[in-house]
Amino acid sequence: MSERALEISARVEQFVRESVAPYEGDPRCGAHGPSDELAMELKALARKAGVLTPHILPDGSHLSHRETAAVLIRAGLSPLGPIACNVAAPDEGNMYLLGKVGAPEIRERFLAPLVKGEKRSAFFMTEPAEDGGAGSDPMMMQTTCKMDGNHWVINGRKTYITGADGAGVGIIMAKSDDGACMFLVDLPDPAIRIERVMDTIDSSMPGGHAVVSIDNLRVPADQMLGESGEGFRYAQARLAPARLTHCMRWLGACVRANEIATDYANRRMAFGKPLVDHEGVGFMLAENLIDLKQAELMIYWCADVLDTGAVGTTESSMAKVAVSEALMRIADRCVQCMGGQGVTTDTIVEQVFREVRAFRIYDGPTEVHKWSLAKKVKRDWKKVQDQA
């Protein structure tokens, strides 16, 4: 690990543990995520501490994926940490995308306020099942875009749009005659209506997850990202590292949950001795250490692949499956070790359990990634047979 990453991650960890964790019981943390008031208050603290958007350097360049892992794992030590440090989803993934493929004017108008923590963003891709729209299969996209003069006109519905309520920047995917397209828009816009914000199992992301209607939204042609028909390519460029950064943040959360469970098991007495001395509990904590280390190694391995310049879709699928499933086991064991205390809001353990359960679906459920890997197994086998 580079010296700069070690230094940044150490400052992030100290900030999250000392300045952010005390806010975990703040009443402004609601069912649809922390309020924007709380998010801005936390970002102001991070700005003062010099850890706001720490993965993007002052000259606009990014830390490597390996370095980013060290930083985001520490930011994730509290569910509020990524929000405070401005490395939360979907903003972190959107910043990465715009920094990679956005034209200079796009970066100045839409990326700069995200990096500064002045605005939040939303990524409009998934569509309602009742409309026959795109979910895990993006080829089913129903939202359309058509040229009208020097504008594109967009119509459709989207769902599970994280952070749409309160966002200042939107990235919208729609389908033209050429294929998928991606557009940058200022929010709010009267043509984009939030039908409702859904009640979901998770509650860590400001704005929650919304169902959205888009009615005759007019977008200037120069606000298209790239060319017509290139949207899926850009979406994949965003999703491969975004899946990995989810792993990083939630690994940090599980490290903290395991710390809390370990402390409880060493202090709580039952049947004449601390819980940790009962094999049923001690062994669960031992298994947590194994899963935590395996998850960490998988994350750094996948980060190294991305740092070679490879797209890394196979590796990110492997990481998403292995890490999300390992973290689910860890969070579940933490709850179990703490018994009744583990399902209360007295600690973040119950929230981490809920968030990690949702993570197994974010950016494609586990089964979709296994299916993708199974297809690779078949392709590789066929390639060997053809060469034989």
Automatic annotation (TrEMBL):
<comment type="similarity">
    <text>Belongs to the acyl-CoA dehydrogenase family.</text>
</comment>
<feature type="domain" description="Acyl-CoA dehydrogenase/oxidase C-terminal">
    <location>
        <begin position="229"/>
        <end position="376"/>
    </location>
</feature>
<protein>
    <submittedName>
        <fullName>Acyl-CoA dehydrogenase</fullName>
    </submittedName>
</protein>
<dbReference type="Pfam" id="PF02770">
    <property type="entry name" value="Acyl-CoA_dh_M"/>
</dbReference>
<dbReference type="GO" id="GO:0050660">
    <property type="term" value="F:flavin adenine dinucleotide binding"/>
</dbReference>
<dbReference type="GO" id="GO:0003995">
    <property type="term" value="F:acyl-CoA dehydrogenase activity"/>
</dbReference>
<dbReference type="Pfam" id="PF00441">
    <property type="entry name" value="Acyl-CoA_dh_1"/>
</dbReference>
<dbReference type="GO" id="GO:0033539">
    <property type="term" value="P:fatty acid beta-oxidation using acyl-CoA dehydrogenase"/>
</dbReference>
<keyword id="KW-0560">Oxidoreductase</keyword>
<dbReference type="InterPro" id="IPR009100">
    <property type="entry name" value="AcylCoA_DH/oxidase_NM_dom_sf"/>
</dbReference>
<dbReference type="InterPro" id="IPR050741">
    <property type="entry name" value="Acyl-CoA_dehydrogenase"/>
</dbReference>
<keyword id="KW-0285">Flavoprotein</keyword>
<dbReference type="InterPro" id="IPR006091">
    <property type="entry name" value="Acyl-CoA_Oxase/DH_mid-dom"/>
</dbReference>
<dbReference type="InterPro" id="IPR036250">
    <property type="entry name" value="AcylCo_DH-like_C"/>
</dbReference>
<dbReference type="InterPro" id="IPR037069">
    <property type="entry name" value="AcylCoA_DH/ox_N_sf"/>
</dbReference>
<keyword id="KW-0274">FAD</keyword>
<dbReference type="InterPro" id="IPR046373">
    <property type="entry name" value="Acyl-CoA_Oxase/DH_mid-dom_sf"/>
</dbReference>
<dbReference type="InterPro" id="IPR009075">
    <property type="entry name" value="AcylCo_DH/oxidase_C"/>
</dbReference>
<feature type="domain" description="Acyl-CoA oxidase/dehydrogenase middle">
    <location>
        <begin position="122"/>
        <end position="199"/>
    </location>
</feature>
<dbReference type="GO" id="GO:0005737">
    <property type="term" value="C:cytoplasm"/>
</dbReference>
